[in-house]
Design goal:
alpha+beta; two-stranded antiparallel ribbon; Alpha-Beta Plaits; 4 strands; 72 residues
């Protein structure tokens, strides 16, 4: 199975949670303790080893702040 790496442009993230909602692995979460410069809570990956590289998070992000790299 492919392995993915999820990269966020934290300063552009608005914390809308669409990526969290659509992650099939349920490994994304909103970090309630970390804010970006705009004052939004950022999204983090709880278990990077479980990322399958599906890129649903990146597809659903309305601001295109997520990049997914896949190792096959």
């Amino acid at each position: 199975m492919p392995k993915g790496k999820t990269i966020f442009d934290y300063e552009r993230c608005k914390g809308c949670l669409l990526c969290v909602e659509f992650c099939p692995q349920k490994i994304l979460y909103q970090d309630k303790t970390t804010l970006n410069r705009a004052g939004y809570n950022i999204i983090k990956v709880s278990d990077p080893d479980k990322c399958i590289g599906c890129a649903f998070c990146a597809i659903m992000c309305p601001d295109s702040v997520i990049t997914v790299e896949v190792d096959k």
